[in-house]
Design brief:
The complex is a heterodimer of chains A (148) and B (141).
Chain A lengths: L1 H50 L2 E9 L2 E8 L5 E8 L2 E3 L4 E4 L5 E3 L1 E2 L7 E5 L8 E7 L4 E6 L2
Antiparallel strand pairs in A: 1-2, 2-8, 3-4, 3-7, 3-9, 5-6, 5-8, 9-10
Chain B lengths: L1 H49 L3 E8 L2 E8 L5 E10 L4 E11 L4 E7 L5 E7 L4 E7 L2 E3 L1
Antiparallel strand pairs in B: 1-2, 2-5, 3-4, 3-6, 6-7, 7-8
Classes of the chains: A alpha+beta (148), B alpha+beta (141).
Chain lengths: 148, 141
């Protein structure tokens, strides 16, 4: 009888140990996958952020519209999330990225196209010197002094 | 027996924990190396961009602008576009180009120009812009 209880006790203990191990492994695996995912995401976000490059080339003012020549010399398309002129955020309806043939690209400045684009801003600019900041969706900001 | 099982389980848990930790360290290291490579690549790009220098001489005769571009920088310059701003009609015109100028070399370019007041931009693949201004038919830099 005592021998049987030893066996039962050992079996119960084994079952508990196996169940605990399975639980631990499952939890640990999901935690590990999550950590790995976050880590990879953080690094890839940083890398993408670095690869965004915008050059301001020239600008033309005509009436209430300013045409700003921009060129993406980075490896990734840049999506403009905000345009700030002299510290004031410009509503999205007042600016747009265009090709030279007049076709609209929305808010995207494509990369690797060997082509400059026109950022058309329908805001009257009073005075000679203005600071323009393009904020990208990845959080980069590109500053340009108009009239400098 | 129970002790043996608990030892095995502990060893198993320890092995899993250690292998996961090592994997995380390796993944971090791999990502860090790849991030550093991108950083280096971007730094090189910016360095090359900053050192781009073109000596431009231009001559305007009967609506034709002849431009000689000499690369006086230590990097190869690729002129990807010429943009003409006609300051009379206030219009912009894009002329796609593919002119590769090795260091120390000179390349010529002819552009038809129908305005005596224009600004001509020579844009490189690294986003540098070189400007020639034409005022009343006279080339100014």
């Amino acid at each position: 009888m005592r021998a049987v209880s030893y066996i039962v006790a050992a079996l119960v203990l084994t079952a508990i140990a196996i169940a605990t191990t399975i639980l631990y492994v499952i939890n640990f695996t999901s935690y590990f996958e999550k950590s790995k995912g976050i880590l990879i995401k953080v690094f890839s976000y940083r890398k993408e952020s670095l690869l965004e490059r915008i050059a301001f080339l020239y600008y033309v003012v005509s009436n209430d519209t300013t045409l700003i020549l921009i060129y993406n010399y980075g490896d990734l398309d840049v999506e403009i999330s905000d345009l700030i002129i002299d510290g004031v955020s410009i509503p999205r309806s007042l600016y747009i990225v265009k090709k030279f043939d007049g076709s609209s690209l929305g808010y995207i400045v494509p990369a690797n196209t060997r082509e400059p684009y026109i950022l058309e801003v329908r805001v009257p600019l009073v005075g000679d010197l203005h600071t323009l900041i393009i904020v990208s969706k990845r959080g980069n900001s590109f500053t340009y002094k108009l009239g400098a | 027996m129970a002790r043996a099982i608990s030892n095995i389980v502990s060893a198993l848990i320890f092995a899993i924990a250690i292998s996961a930790l090592i994997s995380l360290i390796l993944i971090s290291f791999h990502n860090l190396v790849s991030y550093t490579e991108v950083l280096h690549q971007v730094e090189m790009l910016e360095m090359k961009r900053a050192s781009e220098r073109l000596r431009i001489s231009a001559n305007l005769t009967s609506n034709t602008l002849t431009v000689n571009m000499t690369n006086v920088s230590p990097v190869v310059i690729d002129v990807i576009s010429v943009v003409v701003h006609d300051r009379i009609s206030n219009s912009l015109k894009l002329i796609p180009q593919h002119i590769i100028i090795p260091p120390g070399c000179t390349k010529s370019l002819t552009i038809s120009l129908y305005s005596i007041n224009a600004t001509v931009l020579f844009i490189t693949s690294r986003g540098t812009c070189f400007i020639v201004v034409i005022e009343n038919g006279v080339v100014k830099y």
